[in-house]
What does this fold into?
Amino acid sequence: MTGAARKLGLSASAMSRTLTRLRNATGDPLLVRAGRGLVPTPRAIELRDVVHALVRDVRMVLKPPTGEINMAELDRVFTIRASEGFVEMFCGPLVADIASAAPRVRLRFAPKPDKNAEAATRGADRPRNRRTRCFRTRNAHAPHLPRPVRRSGENGASAALGRDHA
It folds into this structure.
């Protein structure tokens, strides 16, 4: 029992509770003591191939598609929850690259004032959201504006908002 629990990443007591639930569901002891170990009952042996097939089928259903993603046809909204410094540093190049590779993809930037993920998921039109931390930084960044913008006398946010990516 301990070895099976370790293999599944469970404690011995959690494994024992799981076995109890399976015994109740099947109406069979599934494993019986033989000497110092446990051996499967005839019913457990019958169920083994069926359960393996079910697990394989469930994995196939839940596994993401492995084909190439057609970026030109991808029509999604991605929310990026990031600090102001990150947005200032990477927003322009990121939006420009996305616009050329995947014109129907929209990026939504949500402020990250604290560790609460509510801002990232607010208004989401998908039944599930995936959150992935790309990296963590404590650096502060100042935006680098192209020369024509700097020469025009505009600066900071007003200059950035006038660009194509805003």
Notes: The beta strands are 31-34, 37-40, 77-82, 106-111. DSSP finds seven helices and four strands in the chain. Residues 89 and 144 are 8 Å apart (CA to CA).
